[in-house]
Amino acid sequence: MKKVENELALALISGAGILAVGAAAGVLAAAVTGYFIDYELVGKESKSPQSERQGFGELVITNKLLTPGASHGRTGQKLDAKGVVIHYVANPGSTAIANRNYFENGSEGNGTSCHYIVGLQGEILRLIPENERAMHAGKAYGVAWATQAKTNNSTYLGIEVCHPDKTGKFSAVTYKALVELVADICERNGFNPYQDIQRHYDVTGKLCPLYYVNNPSAWEKFKTDVYLTMNASKPDLEAEPSDWARTAWEWGIENSVTDGARPHGAATRQVCSISMTYQATRTANRATQSTNSEICR
Ligand SMILES: [Zn+2]
Asked: Would the pTM of this model clear 0.90, i.e. be above it?
């Protein structure tokens, strides 16, 4: 499991003890389930997305919130997002944190920003909460950002993606993290991946994200990958155990191997091995009993 990261200092700056409590709950949930649950700043949702998150695998997001203020690209204006715009950073080999700091430092006076950055190793940074506007997809170039903010930036979440070379193609690990992130965003916000995910190119004409403008089929595949990730089979955590597992499950409760909660939740190999040992022992005992009865008769 990847390391659980959280920036408590930033959480406190951004506003409340509740955030620290949320982070602690996230760490606890990660320890129990193997998934990182980080839900203190998930935009429209205030409840834990834990149940929705179970089917997705690991999604680790590190808070690196920008300092509030227009000069940092964080105006604090409210956003009720209708979709997501994908960008490439257009700076080959640059890291997620370097791009984040570029925004933090005012982006050369432009006050640009985004909600998330996906890095070269698939790391994900959160710069702005989903319910706040970011400055990433202005209507046209040469227009003041303040004016542009009334258009696309009022509609879309923005994700910047790092890339190793000038083609702008995302590496496999970066691509996978991006798919997971966008699937999670679509799931939580009710977005349709085929209709509500846009390239920067689609909303302003800018050649961004370059590789996916030059290769429309790769872009179509991206949306499909998001769709497939959203619809991957998710275990029903509240369902009763399967018939084949029921006796072992009941034995497990009786012998304090499990408390009987979440029968379809993730299990460690250790837990699995206990279950398998139980089944093997039972089978062996049955065989012995059967042999004994033959003898007695
Ligand atoms: Zn862009």
From this structure: no
**Does residue 168 sit in the same domain as residue 100?**
yes
Same domain, 63 and 203: yes
Domain span including residue 171: 58-230
Q: How many domains does the chain have?
A: 2
- 207 in a domain, yes or no? yes
Positive or negative, the CA dihedral 273, 276, 281, 287 is: negative
Are 124 and 61 within 8 A, CB to CB?
Answer: yes
Centroid of ligand 1 to alpha carbon of 5 (angstroms)? 27
Shared-domain flag, residues 112 and 134:
yes
The CA radius of gyration of the chain, in Å to the nearest whole number, is: 24
The alpha carbon of 103 and the centre of ligand 1 are apart by a number of angstroms equal to 14
CA of 84 to the centre of ligand 1 (A): 12
Tell me the pLDDT of the chain (297 aa) as tens digits.
333 333 333 333 333 333 333 333 333 333 333 333 333 333 333 333 333 333 345 678 999 999 999 999 999 999 999 999 999 999 999 999 999 999 999 999 989 999 999 999 999 999 999 999 999 987 555 444 444 445 789 899 999 999 999 999 999 999 999 999 999 999 999 999 999 999 999 888 889 999 999 999 999 999 999 999 998 866 666 677 777 788 888 888 888 777 777 776 666 667 677 767 777 777 777 766 655 555 544
What is the Å distance from ligand 1's center to 161 Cα? 9
How many angstroms is it from 206 CA to the middle of ligand 1?
A: 7
192 and 260 part of one domain: no
**Alpha-carbon torsion 177, 28, 52, 46, what sign?**
negative
